[in-house]
Amino acid sequence: MRILLLLVSLSCLGLAQDLREGERLYKFHCAFCHGKGDDGMAANLVSPQLVHAPTEEALLGIIRNGIPGSDMPASLGMSDSDIRSVAAYVRALGRSAPASVPGDVARGRELYMGKAGCAGCHMVAGKGGINGPDLSTIGIERAPASLRASIVAPDESIPPRWMRAVVKTKSGTTASGVLVNEDNFGIFLRAGNGRVQYIDKASVASIERGYTRSIMPSYAKTLSEAELTDVVAFLFSLRGER
Ligand code: HEC
Ligand code: HEC
Questions:
Q1: Successive 10-residue mean pLDDT values, the chain, 242 residues
Q2: Would 86 disulfide with which of 25, 107, 109, 196, CB 3.0-4.6 Å?
Q3: Do 177 and 165 form a contact (C-beta atoms < 8 A)?
């Protein structure tokens, strides 16, 4: 029913043209975090069911307002028609292939709780350590490929929420915050108060990106390929209540 409505509304706009525009906008505004849809640092969008966007209305709302309390930002400088185009593109991504992950969830959980020692630092459903982020809903926040990257190369795959930048402008001002988005023309920084600021690259004197070393060890050598696959399957299954 929903898909039917979507197709009807799309055919009014011209489906192919709208999707092309949606793709262009997606690459500009979303790919920085979501990659091609299933290989980004943020939530997997190649799924017929989006947890936060069960309805069209909800999807448009998320793109317009972001997801409060998460790294999913509100849209900046996107018109209602831009938001509709990008939403159509997201739905098309969702229809392209279901996300299925190989691996054994139960074995992954055992490794996680046991010899890999993940639970010593991470909390899941209220149990575990507090030296790393809570992973209770990591399966809806991150795509499988990037979860794997987090485990084998924690230093190189620090998620957007830990990527920081200090920007100095030619006029002598300094801005700092979480690096929300960046392209050839400008940089978006989110300050501690949650406000997002756009800085034109033409006015920038220097950008210092603050990657701090992770305290999380790399498991590239301590877990086998099969074990890694199982741990990723377990993480991807974590979709509990916040
Ligand atoms: C700064 C990184 C970032 C950018 C840019 C970004 N997102 Fe997100 N997005 C996230 C994160 C992180 C989540 C997961 C939030 C959570 O559940 O905690 C998310 C979640 C979502 C969801 C919900 C997925 C689900 O399963 O419910 C949708 C839909 C989405 N984003 C679409 C978009 C679109 C469309 C754009 C571009 C207009 C965009 N995002 C830009 C980081 C980002
Ligand atoms: C010594 C503590 C420690 C151990 C042990 C540890 N982690 Fe982490 N982990 C962290 C910290 C701290 C971060 C935050 C980002 C960073 O600094 O890399 C993190 C980040 C992550 C992330 C990204 C979280 C997000 O919000 O995107 C995942 C996924 C993850 N760890 C999974 C694991 C798994 C699976 C294991 C076991 C195989 C593990 N961690 C073991 C400390 C740890």
A1: 47 63 91 86 82 89 90 88 92 69 94 96 89 82 82 71 80 85 84 75 89 75 96 89 46
A2: 25
A3: yes
